[in-house]
Amino acid sequence: MKNKPVNNQVPQVSLCRKGAWLNSGLPSALKRSIRDKFGLDIEFCDGQNLSSTKESTYKDYLSALFHLEPDGFIFQNNYLVGIPKIVFLESEACLDAAKKSPYWDDVIGFLSYSNKDQFISNKPVFQNSDIDKISDFLFDYINKSVTSRPLYGLALVGGKSQRMKKDKGSLDYFGKAQGQHVYDLLDDVCEKTYMSIREEQSNLAYLNGMKDHCLPDKFLNMGPLGGLLTAFHKHPEASWLVLACDLPYISKENLDQLIKGRNHFKKATCFKNPEKGWSEPLCTIYEPGAVRAFHQYLSLGIVCPRKALMNVPHEVLEVNSKLVLQNINTPEGYKEAKSKTQTNVFENEGNYQ
User: Fold this and answer.
1) Are 170 and 131 found together in one domain?
2) pLDDT (tens digit, 9 = 90+) per residue, 77-133?
3) Residues 141, 158: one domain?
4) In the beta sheet, which residues pair with residue 177?
């Protein structure tokens, strides 16, 4: 299929084959069960005509996607190749037809009124009345869908460093440029890592040989939010762990804690800044679902990443030290932080507990 208008970043399953199930109340029962048991909001959509963006049902799909922001979709009779499907078996002929269809490899399970088999071709078979079993199965599928997203790292080194009066990514806390240090921290816990830079920074010494790992801002003069959106446009399929280069006390242990406490169903997972009392936006995992909201804030002239983060659903974790999220923006602050990082003072303040 050349035209696949459905959003692959939102988990989706199709209930295939017309039949008595359409009037059985099963879709509504599944929606209630998934909401009550797992706290997820699933939208049902007539998917039969979603093969073209020109169809009227496509507008209904977009309306649900953008206004309701569901955790997933269950389509009715969407036969597009690539959409996972649960096929209703009303007869043996239905099974034969499914096996011959181009979407056979997309089938993840079956519903049957009469078939007593537990599996067909290693795919589970449910009875129409198995609401709990079906909802558990759908939750497991949706959960695997969101947890299987790749996690990429984004080292934020594109600031203008006006107060520091020197490129903050070029500062040396640990025997190498801080931009390289942040990149290495992220690269140790992420599948891929990139540097978020301004175009004019490309000649900086610590970026030599890093051309393929640099993402020059495409959203200009918008600060870290522009860098994050540039990253999402590069890899919309990924979630992004961002880390600013002016947070020198962040350790690998902190990043491990962030990843372990990640809530895939929220727009972001971050730490609470213990000194300032707000959610820290520059050491955060952002999920693909955050992109739409961030574009909306940009359209209103809001480029502050903290304001954007505070206005989307996000998971907040605690850190054990006020020092961990302290940002360093002045020469005096750099001198003090350099002394602490060299003497490992911050380890004794709870950073690794």
Assistant:
1) no
2) 778 788 899 998 887 888 888 899 998 999 999 988 776 678 898 999 998 888 999
3) no
4) 172
pLDDT value of position 75: 82
Pairing of strands 268-272, 279-286: antiparallel
Q: Is the dihedral of CA 11, 27, 312, 294 positive or negative?
A: positive
Residues 275 and 140 both lie in one domain:
no
Tell me the pLDDT tens digit for each residue of 220-231.
Answer: 778 889 899 999
Number of domains in the chain: 2
Does 339 lie in the same domain as 289? yes
Sort 68 into a burial class: Cβ within 10 Å, 0-12 / 13-18 / 19+. Answer: exposed
In a domain, 80, yes or no: yes
For residue 279, CA distances in Å to 50, 198, 219, 292 come to 39, 25, 23, 20
294, with CB counted inside 10 A (0-12, 13-18, 19+), is buried
Q: Which residue has the higher pLDDT, 347 or 103?
A: 103
Same domain, 294 and 234: yes
Residues 133 and 174 in one domain: no
How far is C-alpha 38 from the geometric centre of its chain's CA atoms? 19
Residues 6+ apart with CB under 8 A from 157: 167, 168, 169, 178, 179, 182, 195, 196, 197, 201, 245
Cβ proximity of 225 and 305 under 8 Å: yes
Domain final residue pick, 130, 147, 164? 147
The phi and psi torsions of 281 (rounded to 5 degrees) equal -85, -10
**78, 48 Cβ separation under 8 angstroms:** yes
Residue 3 lies in a domain: no
Burial environment of residue 234 by CB neighbours within 10 A (0 to 12, 13 to 18, 19 or more): middle
Alpha carbon of 164 to those of 170, 227, 329: distances in Å?
Answer: 11, 20, 5
Q: Please tell me whether residues 117 and 176 are part of one structural domain.
A: no
How far is it, in rounded angstroms, from Cα 192 to Cα 65? Answer: 28
Tokens of residue 318, six digits:
């605690």
